[in-house]
Amino acid sequence: MDQNFLHARIIHIKDAAEKSAAATNFLKYIRITTDLVFPRRCPFCDGYAEFGQLLCTTCRKKEKELLIKEPWCMKCGKPIREEKEEYCLACRTGRHLFTRGRSLYEYREFAPSIYRFKYEDRREYAEYFGKQIARYLGPEIRAWKPDVLIPVPLHERKLSERGFNQAELLAVSMGKALNIPVLPRAIMRVSDTLPQKYLDPAERHKNLQNAFKIGISSVKSKKAVLVDDVYTTGSTIDACAEVLLRSGAADGYFVTLATGKGI
Ligand SMILES: [Zn+2]
Ligand SMILES: [Zn+2]
Q1: Which of 68, 79, 110, 192 has the fewest C-beta atoms under 10 angstroms from its C-beta?
Q2: pLDDT tens digits for 144-193?
Q3: Is residue 13 part of a domain?
Q4: Strand locations in 8-116, DSSP E?
Q5: pLDDT tens for each residue of 14-62
Q6: Which ligand gives the minimal distance to the CA of 50?
Q7: For residue 254, which ligand has an atom nearest its CA?
Q8: Contacts with 154 (C-beta within 8 Å, 6 or more apart), sequence order
Q9: Does 29 map to a domain?
Q10: Is 20 within the bounds of a domain?
Q11: Which ligand is nearest to the CA of 57?
């Protein structure tokens, strides 16, 4: 390689590094200024987080109580009572289309946070939640060797009403922390279904049949991790996993922020 060319390359690389350091500092400055003007809300109690922090001191201690502790179902990750059981009742008696999945928090006590996150536009919570999923569930997620994260989509109408898809924000934050690419348009929600919470399992299944279609990104031979806010009976995750598997995906795992207790 020519000496002058090499010298020019080194200057170019140094210049790019300095520019990126300046960009990082600038972003830090913006973040500090924004925190001063609009202090962040704690994702657990909605009080103000301390300056430069993502949650308040009290909730830093309380958070550990919300984390799902062993034993949990080896299939769906719901906490179960009996250590000797490998699976929860639902996974022992029914069939799921996903390979397996995990959730971070137990839903009951955590429900108000999810409500604010989704319905009171606390989209800022996603940064913290995504980081915590990566921190606590990261080793297991990495062991699955996933190629992509795919958020469970919202229907266009709901997306324009809410302005954001909480599952996509979680996936982006997780993806950044775990260095896994996110495919936000891999699955589309084509029918605007009734809220699942008012339906029994059979109705849920019917409600979700044909609700999802494969989107614009190719999932062929990919190991995918579906991302959503809450796991209830697994019917939504199953419906998405079915779409992925039918389109040639190698595997469909899932991660949700919260889940209910198993039996
Ligand atoms: Zn708090
Ligand atoms: Zn289970």
Answers
A1: 192
A2: 999 999 999 999 999 999 999 999 999 999 999 999 999 999 999 998 76
A3: no
A4: 101-106
A5: 555 555 666 666 656 665 555 666 678 999 999 998 888 888 989 988 8
A6: 1
A7: 2
A8: 162, 165, 167, 189
A9: no
A10: no
A11: 1
